[in-house]
Design goal:
The chain has about 170 residues and is of the alpha+beta class. It has helices at about 5-20, 65-90, 105-110, 135-150, 150-155, and strands spanning about 30-35, 40-45, 50-55, 65, 95-105, 120-130.
């Protein structure tokens, strides 16, 4: 997709959202099915049913997806798509790779040490880029990618989260 095609696709959306802010709010969903026989959750994605389970550091055997790794994968996917969209809009030729890694202290999630955090304490996102763009253009590309990456902004923004349960 080139910049003109991207602008043409986004122009009517931007116009609509500018005129009606409520139209810009989209509720996204994810659904899972608790595994009745093991310690797993089956998650429906747009293209497949995947099974998440325990990471080996918390007792899993490594045959199922780890939700922590899935979070990092979502960050990589979002950052990569966002960077490609920004590069397209700016008319920059950019290729390369996106990497995310995070440090998780399993004492927290296993209840070994109540002072240990549950969740990632540090996440590092990095890009290994190939481009003919100059340093100033690449700095702008990174700045805009950070600004518009939904997953990155969600992680760093500390959104309000509610948890509910129904019983039947």
């Amino acid at each position: 997709m080139d910049a003109d095609t991207l602008r043409a696709a986004q122009a009517p959306l931007k116009k609509r959202y500018a005129e009606d802010a409520t139209a810009a709010v989209v509720t996204m969903r994810a659904d899972g099915e608790l595994d009745g026989t093991g310690v797993a959750c089956k998650v429906r994605t747009a293209t497949a049913l995947v099974e998440a389970g325990l990471h080996p550091a918390s007792g899993g055997d490594g045959t199922q997806l780890c939700s922590g790794e899935m979070l990092l994968e979502a960050l990589v996917a979002c950052a990569g798509v966002t960077m490609r969209a920004v590069a397209t809009s700016l008319g920059l030729d950019v290729e390369g790779s996106v990497h995310a890694e995070g440090d998780l202290d399993f004492r927290g999630t296993l209840g070994v040490d109540k002072a240990a955090p549950v969740g990632f304490r540090d996440i590092r996102l990095s890009f290994d880029l190939r481009s003919s763009a100059d340093e100033e253009q690449l700095a702008l590309l990174l700045k805009l990618t950070e600004r518009y990456c939904v997953v990155l902004q969600t992680i760093t923004g500390n959104p309000a989260v509610s948890v509910t349960s129904t019983h039947g």
